[in-house]
Design a protein that fits this description.
Elements (H helix, E strand, L loop, with lengths): L2 E7 L8 H13 L3 E7 L5 E7 L3 H11 L5 E5 L5
Antiparallel strand pairs: 1-3, 1-4, 2-3
């Protein structure tokens, strides 16, 4: 399954509550999206998330459905060690 890094620039600090995280997890499960890890900037206004899913359009729809911005999506060809 292809890997993608999704970069998001947020207007507010990213501090989701448990209910929001639960809803995102449910959405991901229903749409065959696997969240692998995330990185958060020091000011908590930018996130970098690694996802596994069928294609970029799945992630664009994910963002639209959940009301989350996307600054960039980068396909990942290889993970470095």
């Amino acid at each position: 399954m292809p890997l993608f890094v999704v970069e998001r620039e947020l207007a507010e600090r990213f501090e989701p509550d448990d209910e929001t995280l639960r809803l995102v997890d449910e959405y991901n499960a229903e749409h065959d999206i696997t969240w692998l890890t995330s990185f958060l900037s020091a000011d908590k206004k930018k996130t970098y998330c690694l996802f596994e899913c069928a294609d970029i359009e799945v992630l664009h729809q994910h963002a639209r459905d959940l009301g989350m911005p996307i600054s960039a999506i980068t396909p990942v060809e290889e993970l470095a060690r």
